[in-house]
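Friendly challenge for the regulars: who can give me the structure tokens for this chain first? No prize, just bragging rights.
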Amino acid sequence: MSLVTLLPFIVLIGAMFLMTRSAKRKQQQASQMRDQMQPGSGIRTIGGMYATVKEVSDETVLVEAAPGVHLIFAKNAIGAVLEDDEYNRIVHGTTEDLDVDGSLVPDDASSLTESDEHADAPADPDEARVDFDKKDDAPAEAGEATAAADKADADETADKAVADKAEPKKTDGESDAK
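First reply, four minutes later:
Bragging rights claimed.
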């Protein structure tokens, strides 16, 4: 066999060796990171939950997610052991290092609109009210004529409903056309 025919196999075996070597290195680093855990250090689980380590055993870790809330995780469920300042910044919201030029973006827009809140309001409080009461602006005679017309329409609708109930309704299968 020539070297040209063996070259693809050699490259493939070399690539597989390099990939397994890098995966083993990542596993060793993760194992070392988990072994460095000690009570009091902040962690992030692979599910994204932040907690403080309370106790470490061979296979499990007891963590406190909130005051009085203790959870037991497998060691391999710990995604990262965080530095103290990073853990405090994420969990407790300390932002000393994030303050740029003394200005911070507010959590909500209320501080941006407080000064403009009363600028559009009218001076007279009665002007701001909207009256939703029904007012009969038409004269009484027009109201009586409208009421009589409404009654006639209602009577006609009732007569049609009675007539519809008396006639049997035809379905698609019972048509008169032959």
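The CA atoms of residues 107 and 160 lie 63 Å apart. Strands lie at 42-45, 50-56, 60-66, 69-74, 78-82. Your move, everyone else.
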